[in-house]
Amino acid sequence: MDLYGALWYKSSYSNGTSSNCVEVGHLPGAYGMRDSKHPDDCALVFSPGEWAAFLGQVRGS
Predict the structure, then answer these.
(1) Of 41, 12, 57, whose CA–CA distance to 33 is shortest?
(2) DUF397 domain location, by residue (predicted)?
(3) Contact criterion met (CB below 8 Å) for 29 and 48
């Protein structure tokens, strides 16, 4: 999947002082996740269903 031009967002919990952040990207029909320290490296790409399941586990539901 071409990630060029995706809009990437850091977590709202990121205060800008730590370099240990992940970014989430809204892609056409998918979601991406990447390391903010290495934005040009590989990213994980999730389908909408996979993303919902991932968030459900992170949120503990």
Answers:
(1) 41
(2) 8-59
(3) yes
Q: For residues 54 and 61, what is the distance between their CA atoms, to the nearest angstrom?
A: 10
21-55 confidence digits (pLDDT tens): 889 999 889 999 998 888 888 899 999 999 999 99
pTM of the model: 0.76
Structure tokens belonging to residue 30: 């998918």
- Asked if 3 and 43 count as a contact pair (C-beta separation under 8 A), the reply is yes
Instruction: Kindly state whether residue 1 falls inside one of the protein's structural domains.
Output: no
CA pair distance 51, 28, nearest whole angstrom: 13
